[in-house]
Amino acid sequence: MAPKKKAGKGPKEPEVKKKKGGKKDPSPANKPMETPISEEIREFYHIQIRDLEDRLARYQQKWDELAVQEKLFRQEFEQLANNKKEIVAFLKHTLNQRVDEITDLNEQLQSLQLAKEMEKDAFEAQLAQVRHEFQETKDQLTTENIILGGKLAALEEFRLQKEELMEKFMLLEDQLRKQENEYKDYVHNLEKKSVLDKDRLKKEIIQRVNMVAAEFRKVATSQMWDTTKRAIMENNTVTLQLAKISRQGMQLLQENEQLRGNQDNLCKQLELLENSQKVMARHSRGHKKIILMLTEKCREQQQGRAEAKQLRLLLSQLEQSLMQLQKDHQALRSQREQLNLQLERQQAEGQRLQQELAEEQKVRANLETALAQATSFLQDIVQMQPDEEDGDFDVVFQLQRNEMLKHLLVMLSSAMALSRQMAVSPRRESQSCGPPKERRCSTQPLKTGPLLQQLSSVTPYQLGGLGLVPRRIHIPPNPEDLRLLSHTTRVGNLWAHSSPEIHTSGSPKRFKKFSLPEVSLLSK
């Protein structure tokens, strides 16, 4: 509107001048008459001209100001339009970046899901393998229990055989008593037939016989006590071994319960991870909805700075949500690393337990083979019988039996040495382990140590031990002297030297002394 005003003012000024000129145009004849009027009119016109000039200056100033304001407004309008275009371009660029980031995050989430599924499959496979191993160990333990039941049955049979041997021993004692009575009767008959010289010999013979009987009874009673003590010791060792085996079974059951607890913890952790995955999926859906809403708002709100501010606020919220997503992603990574560490620890512990189990099985197998061989040797020894011609006094039979017992003793001592070596090696390995694993590595020697100590504490049979251990060097009787003696004295000498239940160190000398008067008597 300002230029139009200027256009209107432009033609008005010449019209005023024309009027002024028209008023000045009257004829020159009338000029001298109108001089005072013209001066007033001139002053009036001058005043009017000044006023108009002032007004023109004011209008010109206003027009300049309006032109400057128009330029400023146009510049601001152009700047606002440029700013609006830049803001829209920036928002589009940032939106594209956020979309790209969201796609990257979605891809990462998919990759994490795939990795989680793979880890889940791996964990399930490991769980199946662990269950299979536990089933195998359970089967092994059941078989071992069956074997131990068979061993108990064998021990029961051994006890029955032992009772039979004790009954035989009692029968032999009765036979000895009968022979003593017969011998006394024989001596009494000899006393009747002998002369006064023989009375002295009879008295000496009776004294010697009484001394021998007393010593024989003492030796028999002492050996009976020794055999009963040894039987009690054997029963105690067997009960201790059974208690040790039951303790080991309980320890294995406790380890199974611990592994089951670890399995339950892993299942709970898997459930927590699945719940977190569902929450992340919900968050991603919410973020997708928010992004769609933002795009709609960006299309609708492209008209002002307020809309731009709202978009900035929404973008800040999106950045915060992305930061939260990144934090959640880092937390998931840390959880995965912790799970990997736990898995490695469990695998190392499982390998250690397998090694310990294998070593214990080796030690047990060695001991079982040694015991089986010992039982077979004992059965062979028990089943051995002398020839019917020689009766119970076969020297070859006694030598063979002694050699077999020596072989059995050597075999048991070698088995004990091997078991001690197997027990020493795990202790060295436990000492080589680090300080945090000392408790775990020291479990195997604690298990095998007491058993080996118990086995090493079991002493072999001493003299009078039912003939299961070879005797010391015996002094056999002279066959020439035996030929000269009677049947009863011959049987007594041979029984004193050959029977495994009764043996005295001073008996051969006494019997030699006893044989001299018999020889002289028979020669007479």
TrEMBL record:
Localization of this protein: Cell projection, Cilium
The UniProt keyword set, sorted, is: Cell projection, Cilium, Coiled coil, Flagellum
Q: Which InterPro entries match?
A: CFAP157 (IPR038844)
Does the keyword field hold Coiled coil?
yes
Coiled-coil ranges per UniProt: 42-193, 308-373
Q: Could you state a single Gene Ontology molecular function term?
A: microtubule binding
Q: Where is this region: Disordered?
A: 1-37
GO cellular-component terms in the record? ciliary basal body
Gene Ontology BP terms: sperm axoneme assembly
Its domain of life?
Eukaryota
The family annotation for this protein states: Belongs to the CFAP157 family.
Mind telling me what this protein is named? Cilia- and flagella-associated protein 157
Protein source organism: Balaenoptera musculus (Blue whale)
